[in-house]
Amino acid sequence: AGSSELAPPPKPAVVSVGSELILGERRDNENLRWMCSVLHERHLPARVAVTVGDDPDVIAEHVGHLYRGGYAPIFVSGGMGGTHDDRTREGIAAALGAPLQTHGECFEILRESYGRTGLEFNEERRRMAELPAGAALIPNPSGAPGFSVEGKIYAFPGFPRMLRPMLLSVLDTIAPAVPPEKRWTVEEQLLPVNEGRVAARVEGLASALRAAGSSASVGIYPSNEQFQAQVKLVLRYQVGDTSARERFDSLVSDVRQSLE
Fold it and tell me: What is the CA radius of gyration of the chain?
């Protein structure tokens, strides 16, 4: 008889690479936010999301820790160009204990691409074909391919116009789009009370949702502007989970009525 054990749930992780991100030179990290958002939409929410600089040792440390800890799939963006500070390929190879080697198919794709544009296929551009041993290519209609290793680590360029279609194409194979009623949505409500006044009731709602087998979650966040006088309640739920929405709306209504 076959084993009745269920496969462990996936432990997705997102790694965003770029020294400009950890040095505070950018106001936000849109790639990280977008990747986490689209994974959540595909019912593959990230368990971990980290940002690291363009240091191959640090990349290797964090990707290796995730890999050895059973996290998969691991999605990495940024640091995939051919300049001196694009070190993601090197870092991932080190994380896996694998050598970097010229990927023949990737080399030919790059050589033909630069040949068509009339640009020199110089040493820096050739460097983009140096991939961890055993890597498989992820097609990029707009530039150099990304790559995957063991079907567990997926590496993409950091340019959003490249990253987004490439990641979506990967997700279409491992986490297809869900039907409309299973899609996640968010409901937010501002209440003119301090956090302590409603915390117990929100905790009660969270417990009730778990007890009902709902995948919805509820959060409570004090206002930055009116810390002691306003909170935001957030319900994250699947569109078809009308019971969760009704419970949330009822809590909000009860709190508002108690203030009258």
Answer: 23
User: CATH topology of 13-174 equal to that of 180-258?
Assistant: no
240, pLDDT greater than 90: yes
Distance CA 43, CA 66 (A): 20
Burial readout 70-82 (b: 16 or more C-beta within 10 A, e: otherwise) = ebbbbbbbbbbbb
The pLDDT value recorded for residue 2 is: 47
As its CATH architecture, domain 180-258 has: 2-Layer Sandwich (3.30)
pLDDT tens digits, 120-169:
999 999 999 999 999 999 999 999 999 999 999 999 999 999 999 999 99
Query: What pTM did the predictor assign?
Result: 0.85
CA atoms within 13 A on the CB side of 118: 0
Return the domain boundaries, the chain.
Answer: 13-174, 180-258
Name the β-bridge partners of 13. 48, 74
The CA distance from 199 to 1, in Å, is 50
Whether 3 has a pLDDT exceeding 60, the answer reads no
The DSSP symbol for 182 reads G
To the nearest 10°, report the CA torsion of 106, 108, 113, 114.
Answer: 110
